[in-house]
Design brief:
This protein is mainly alpha-helical and 314 residues long. It contains twelve helices and four strands. Helix content is 68%, strand content 4%. The longest helix is centred in the middle third of the chain and has 43 residues. It is globular.
Length: 314
């Protein structure tokens, strides 16, 4: 098993990492390369945007699924709720068109995220050492996976629960639900994006621990402040001021903080040995020879020696 892992490591080093060694490019060549990669990224995003805008109506219908259905994990299916007849209205002539543009643009950006990360990797990796590349590569890949996992978790579980609770509360209070398409799309997209970022918290803590900025004992000491900070951030990030949505965002954020503590314990950077770590050994060796340890103090004569002052009245 170990031989197979070593062979895979050597293959990655020879075929992927070594060809990407820094060519010592001048600054202007780096800027030209950055311009080329940004141009390619913009072109890819524009091409994908044309396709997503063509299917914008279908994408908006997908966003309406959490409004009118609840996901059942047992049967892996959507079940209609009492909100299946809630209409979406637009209050301005260009509101529906603008929402289609917004949805198409965001889906295009999320869809090409793997390609954007690949371009960033290709631009940055020549300046990294081999050890840094072996760590940064999997970290970038896991960041993309964590973001998509957060978006999926919000779409299937958090968003349907939040919408059903909030709208049912208004209906039970005697109000008639007529939701603006702009308000609903903004609410849904913001929820999806924020939960995608919340799932990045453990990876961010792991990266800081790898760089030696934090460690597990430090994070444990600030647990109370982390809980308070989670609710403060949730209050800022939630699209509505109600405490229900605040709790829906704050609690997962704090849970991932605890996951980050566990991860920091595994990936914490080892601190270098203290400079005076070798002093006891030196003192012991000197004591074995019957001599006082030398600490760099120059020799002085008997006339220059100053003893401990004594009370002459005794």
């Amino acid at each position: 098993m170990s031989n197979g892992l070593n062979s895979l490591n050597q293959w990655l080093q020879d075929t992927i990492f070594k060809p990407l060694e820094d060519k010592k490019m001048p600054v202007m060549e780096h800027l030209v390369e950055l311009q080329v990669r940004l141009t390619r990224a913009v072109i890819i995003i524009a091409v994908v945007f044309v396709g997503t805008f063509f299917f914008a109506d279908t994408l908006v219908k997908w966003l309406r699924i959490p409004l009118q259905n609840m996901f059942m994990p047992g049967s892996l299916s959507w079940v209609p709720t009492d909100l299946a007849t809630v209409p979406l209205v637009f209050l301005a002539p260009a509101e529906a068109l603008w929402q289609n543009v917004k949805v198409a643009g965001l889906f295009a950006l999320v869809g090409v995220t793997p390609y954007l990360l690949f371009e960033v990797w290709q631009f940055v990796v020549p300046g990294l050492h081999a050890q840094e590349r072996r760590f940064v590569g999997p970290f970038v890949l896991l960041s993309a996976v964590a973001f998509y996992a957060g978006v999926s978790f919000s779409f299937f579980f958090v968003l349907p629960f939040a919408l059903n609770f909030l709208i049912s509360y208004g209906v039970n209070a005697g109000f008639v639900p007529q939701i603006s398409i702009a308000q609903y799309v903004g609410f849904a997209l913001w929820f999806l994006m924020v939960f995608g970022l919340i799932f990045e918290v453990p990876l961010a803590i792991t990266l800081m621990a790898k760089f030696g900025w934090v460690d597990a004992p430090f994070l444990k000491r600030y647990r109370k402040w982390a809980l308070l900070g989670s609710f403060i951030f949730a209050a800022v990030l939630t699209p509505t001021p109600d405490p229900f949505n605040q709790c829906l965002m704050a609690l997962p954020m704090y849970i991932f903080y605890e996951v980050g503590i566990i991860s920091a314990g595994f990936f914490n950077k080892k601190k270098p040995a203290e400079e005076g770590a070798g002093m006891p050994a030196m003192a012991t060796a000197a004591a074995g020879n019957g001599k006082a340890p030398s600490v760099g103090i120059p020799n002085v004569g008997d006339s220059d020696y100053v003893g401990v002052p004594t009370d002459r009245r005794r």
